[in-house]
Amino acid sequence: MSNLAITFSKLGKWADAEQLEIQVLDMTERILGKKHPHTLSSISNLATTCQKLGKWADAEQLLIQVLGMRERTLGKEHPDTLSTMSNLAATFSQLGKWADAEQLQIQVLDLREQILGKEHPDTLSTMSNLATTFSKLGKWADAEQLQTEVLDIIEMTLEKE
Predict the structure, then answer these.
(1) Distance separating alpha carbons of residues 9 and 3, to the nearest angstrom
(2) Maximal C-alpha separation, the chain
């Protein structure tokens, strides 16, 4: 069922994907438990589908749940935890919760810089997202500084190649 839900997602059949993902989540919770990695992935997949359907409040609730469990079980520095933090920050942005988005993006950026380095695409993407959030908050100087830094890093990386 999970594979069919993924296929529906790839085809843009988000409502069909959502129905199957709810069933998959119910089964994984019952069989594997709420904290099992497969259950957390099922919740995360459902959150992504909710985002695609514009159900941002539902996505927010699901991602908060996943983030809490992943932080406790995997730690803040785990790639799955960082992805969940980033997805939650994007959801906050869609909901206009710019201060919450900013706080989470700063945490993600700090961790990604430590773990992946400044030149990693995920780090650069986080920097760019944070710059957008700074703009939405009217922090124009911070936005400019961060976007300039992103551009400088990209140019340096391209010159190396």
Answers:
(1) 10
(2) 53
Given a contact cutoff of 8 angstroms between Cβ atoms, the answer to whether 119 and 101 are in contact is: no
The token duo for 113 is: 């810089």
Q: Which candidate, 134, 127, 132, places its Cα nearest to that of 150?
A: 127
Q: Which two three-digit tokens encode residue 10?
A: 């790839």
From the CB of residue 25, how many other CB atoms can be counted at a distance below 10 Å? 22
For residue range 93-138, what is the model confidence (pLDDT) as tens digits? 999 999 999 999 999 999 999 999 999 999 999 999 999 999 999 9
Tokens of 76: 């803040």
Global pTM reads 0.90
- Concatenated DSSP letters of 76-104: TTSHHHHHHHHHHHHHHHHTT-HHHHHHH
